[in-house]
Amino acid sequence: YPSEFLIQKITEDNQIPVHLHVSMSLQYVAGLKGNALVEFFHGNIAEVENEELRHLMWSSVLFYKAPTVEVMACVLLSTKAIYFLLDDSFIHADEHQSDFWNKENSDCENSSFHLSCCFVLKLNDLQSVNIGLFDQYFRITGHSAGHIVTCLTRDSYNTHAFIQQLMAVLSLLARTPSPEPVDKDFYSEFGSKNTGKMENYELIHSSRVKFIYPNEEEIGDLAFLVAEKMDGLANLQSLNILLYVLAFQVNHIEASAQNTSLLQPKTLILTSSDLFLFDEDYISYPLPEFAKEPPKRDKYQLADGRRIRDLDRVLMGYQTYPQALTFVFDDVQNQDLMQNLTLDHFGE
Predict the structure, then answer these.
(1) CA atoms within 13 Å, Cβ hemisphere of 147
(2) CA distance 161 to 268
(3) Cβ-Cβ contacts under 8 Å for 98 (sequence gap 6 or more)
(4) Which residues are CB-contacts of 195 (< 8 A; sequence separation ≥ 6)?
(5) In the CATH hierarchy, which fold is given to the domain comprising 4-174+194-212?
(6) What is the pLDDT at residue 229?
(7) By 3-state DSSP, what share of the chain in percent is helix, strand and coil, each rounded to 5?
(8) How many CA atoms lie within 13 A of 63 on its CB side?
(9) CA–CA dist 163, 52 (Å, integer)
(10) Cα–Cα 20 to 30 A to 101, which of 32, 195, 244, 309?
């Protein structure tokens, strides 16, 4: 252990996405190749001696306890756990979440060391994995609120590769088998279906971890929401969602004024007549079993929306992936789609 093929694969995957900035400590990790990367894992991250590194992926992550802070992470999957090697800036990003981390090394802040914090989710604690629409992200759920993490891969290939590796590793776990299902009688079988809502498609792995995929109703709900924002429920029958993609909105002016990031995460939805940008909650839905109340914000919040017929031109950058697109709209006075949507009937 490990095979040449695995070392080569992990080395190839050890690349930070070019559009995202990370701290010095994570840049150091991204510079490791081949056996040096495996030795780094065993010397600094692995918790037991005989665990094997199986997969490496760079991804933005969100935590259930800090749902507004998206942070870059190196995600390492071994035969024992999933490790999230995080930017040190995450600890200081949200003052209200300071109790989320045990900060014992605060005296090192002014030294020349570059610290990273590592969040560990043991495979034995894993309960379910929710795959997002069109494999753009996935959420890993453990036994408590502190053990829920969403990986925003923004890439169906990376999502698929991680899920396949995770299933393979879970197959190695020795867990007690599930009890035999009790045969239900006719009445209880039909009585339990009065919720009126179809459950998502579930695949229960041999390790008893649930892999939950979105069903067609989720797209239907999204289409209804989009039609509602268009102020035209009559068009719901003809409304087709052509594209759903997790992207970033480049925000030059506001970012420089407020010292915020240039890249604002957004969900882009394209229909046959409109282009929408939503702020989506990727971590709170579907509600975990222990949640006592619904989340503070809706799953989708409209950030911007324009009609395709007002689109004047699309400018494309010539750089490699990820591609930058600029949409230029004709702002026709009194015909702006956003006019109706910003009315607050209960506000001032």
Answers:
(1) 18
(2) 23
(3) 91
(4) none
(5) PH-domain like (2.30.29)
(6) 76
(7) 30, 30, 40
(8) 22
(9) 17
(10) 32
Beta bridge partners of 300: 280
Mean pLDDT over residues 234-242, rounded?
Answer: 72
Neighbours of 81 (CB within 10 A): 21
Specify the residue for token string 């070019």.
18
> Which residue, among 285, 322, 281, has the nearest Cα to 303 in the 3D structure?
281
Contact assessment for residue 258 and residue 274, using Cβ atoms and an 8 Å cutoff: no
Residue 292, pLDDT score: 84
Query: Residue 30, SS3?
Result: helix
Who's near 168: CB < 8 A, 6+ residues apart?
54
Tokens encoding 329: 């709209």
- Would you say residue 123 has pLDDT above 90? yes
Instruction: Supply angle C-alpha 13, 16, 18, rounded to 5.
Output: 125
Query: Residues spanned by CATH 2.30.29.30 within the chain?
Result: 4-174+194-212
The token pair at 204 is 């229960």
Looking at the domain covering 216-329, what would its CATH class be? Answer: mainly beta
Span 281-322, pLDDT tens digits: 999 988 888 888 888 888 999 999 998 889 999 998 777 767
Q: Which residues fall within 8 angstroms of residue 273, CB to CB, at 6 or more apart?
A: 230, 235, 307, 308, 309
| Cα separation, 134 vs 156, whole angstroms | 7
Q: How far apart are CA 158 and CA 7, in angstroms?
A: 18
Q: What is the rounded distance in angstroms from the CA atom of residue 161 to the CA atom of residue 147?
A: 22
pLDDT band per the 50, 70, 90 thresholds, residue 342: very low
Tell me the CB-side half-sphere exposure of residue 317, using CA atoms within 13 A: 8
Q: Which two tokens stand for residue 253?
A: 């002016």
- Cα angle for residues 35, 36, 39 (degrees, 5° grid): 85
What are the start-end ranges of the H helices in the chain?
Answer: 4-13, 24-30, 34-40, 89-93, 156-170, 186-191, 216-229, 252-258, 338-341
Q: Which residue has the higher pLDDT, 263 or 319?
A: 263
Q: Tokens standing for 8?
A: 């080569």
